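Morning!

This is the sequence you dropped in the shared folder:
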Amino acid sequence: MRVSVTHQEDMKFKAQTAQSSFIIDCPVISPVEYFLAGLITCSATDMIVMPKKQGYEVSNLTVTGDVVRAQEHPRKFDTLHMTFSFDASADNKLAARWVMASLETYCSTVNTVRESVNISYTIIYNGETIKENETMISGGGSGTEFGDIGGCPS
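The structure's back. Tokens below.
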């Protein structure tokens, strides 16, 4: 994977990937916000793809990430709390499994930072909180193989 960033003007940069390009407009949206958005989107794609492969359709999906950063430079993420809110026709156990599979196994971005960031999550499923402030196991993933889900390329 390769991405190149080219200065355009003022604090605007063009990011070029193998597939597309986009403008990063600092400080309107900071690089840290782009990073967090990418981290969240990685897991959000899993939340559409995994259920679909099992014959379910997820609707009303919103994934929110709240970060607390260190006060001293380089101001790394100390904690990340992700809230998954979505609807589907599966039971609560399967819905929670989709989130856990994404976070523990499939989401490359979450698994890239998991050893240095305390990550927790809440699941609001069909309007009901079914998991609240659950903590991920630090480092290394769960080791549980769920098969290829075919989400966003990592």
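Headline: Residues 30-135 form a domain with the GMP Synthetase; Chain A, domain 3 fold (CATH 3.30.300.20).

More detail when I'm at my desk.
O.
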